[in-house]
């Protein structure tokens, strides 16, 4: 009995120390969680102070994970762990994991390149490869976009950076190209006048650069007239659709014909027909 009591007296300080360590560890966990939330909110407020919102998600992720790492080291230190050796072990483990996940690291590296060079920002519409969409978020691993048909896609950053990027909204203005096809029997100057009138009736077309008019091609079944005009980027599709809607009635009002592909058949009769038939038979 005395031996048990003596053991309890010896274990008392140890249990007290362990209990206090657990209590401090729980407090450290709670403090880390609260600190991470505060850091996240603080980073999100950076966009209100002029920081590009494209950078905010990545900065938030890095800051939150850094907070968790510091909190974890503090908790380990409370229990007397050798944090110096642990950091070295984590470094070696990180190297091994990095070699195993080299494709993921490529996405992270590409993400930093995208954030550094800024070929596009949040809210801009881009195309890489066959993918078109409006950028919603650039993360460490993926770029999130909304496609024109309302789908949300996540593309690995290395795939985005590895393709030729087209930014549709970076420049303030964009050029519209309209092709008006008229028949060979129609007057070209009348067709040009129709294009001039369409431009004069559309106030959203910019005066500078000046619209350009030309005969683009003498096609198989038509003469193709070409209009090039500049508009504000955010008005591009509205103006394009408006011009296309007015083009056909305007051409028809001037008596011009919009041709369609056609072939002329020459019927050979008499001796000429016989000669053609003999030539076809010989070729067979």
Mean pLDDT: 80
CATH-derived architecture of the largest domain: Orthogonal Bundle
| Poorly predicted runs of 5 or more residues | none
In quaternary terms, these chains amount to single chain
Q: How is the largest sheet built, in terms of strand order?
A: 4-3-2-1-5
Write the layout of secondary structure elements.
Elements: H1 2-44, H2 56-78, H3 83-100, H4 102-117, E1 125-128, E2 131-138, E3 142-146, E4 152-156, H5 157-161, E5 165-167, E6 173-182, H6 188-200, E7 212-218, E8 223-232, H7 236-253, H8 270-283
Antiparallel strand pairs: 1-2, 1-5, 2-3, 3-4, 6-8, 7-8
Helix pairs in contact: 1-2, 3-4, 6-7
Brief digest:
The chain is elongated and about 130 Å long.
Describe the model.
This protein is α+β, with helices and mostly antiparallel strands. It folds into 3 domains: 11-100, Helix Hairpins, CATH 1.10.287.1260; 110-167, SH3 type barrels (Roll), CATH 2.30.30; 173-253, Alpha-Beta Plaits. The chain has helices spanning 2-44, 56-78, 83-100, 102-117, 157-161, 188-200, 236-253, 270-283; strands at 125-128, 131-138, 142-146, 152-156, 165-167, 173-182, 212-218, 223-232. The strands form 2 sheets. A 5-stranded antiparallel β-sheet has the order 4-3-2-1-5. Strands 6-8-7 form a 3-stranded antiparallel β-sheet, with helices on one face. Helix 1 (2-44) packs antiparallel against helix 2 (56-78) and helix 3 (83-100) packs across helix 4 (102-117).
């Amino acid at each position: 009995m005395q031996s048990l009591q003596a053991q309890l007296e010896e274990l008392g300080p140890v249990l007290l120390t362990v209990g206090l360590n657990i209590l401090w560890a729980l407090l450290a966990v709670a403090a880390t969680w609260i600190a991470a939330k505060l850091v996240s909110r603080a980073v999100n407020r950076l966009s209100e102070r002029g920081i590009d919102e494209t950078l905010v998600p990545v900065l938030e992720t890095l800051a939150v994970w850094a907070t968790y790492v510091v909190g974890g080291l503090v908790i380990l230190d409370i229990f007397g762990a050798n944090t110096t050796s642990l950091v070295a072990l984590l470094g070696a483990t990180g190297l091994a994991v990095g070699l195993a996940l080299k494709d993921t690291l490529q996405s992270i590296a590409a993400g930093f390149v995208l954030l550094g060079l800024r070929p596009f920002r949040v809210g801009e519409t881009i195309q890489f490869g066959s993918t078109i969409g409006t950028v919603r978020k650039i993360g460490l691993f993926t770029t999130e976009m909304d496609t024109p048909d309302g789908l949300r896609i996540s593309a690995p950053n290395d795939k985005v950076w590895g393709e030729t990027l087209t930014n549709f909204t970076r420049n303030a203005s964009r050029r519209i190209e309209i092709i008006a096809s008229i028949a060979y029997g129609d007057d070209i100057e009348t067709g040009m006048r129709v294009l001039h009138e369409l431009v004069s009736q559309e106030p959203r077309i910019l005066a500078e650069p000046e619209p350009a008019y030309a005969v683009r091609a003498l096609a198989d079944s038509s003469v193709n007239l070409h209009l090039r005009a500049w508009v504000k980027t955010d008005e591009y599709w509205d103006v394009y659709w408006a011009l296309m809607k007015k083009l056909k009635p305007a051409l028809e009002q001037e008596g011009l014909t919009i041709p369609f592909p056609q072939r002329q058949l020459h019927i050979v009769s008499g001796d000429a027909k016989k000669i053609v038939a003999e030539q076809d038979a010989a070729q067979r």
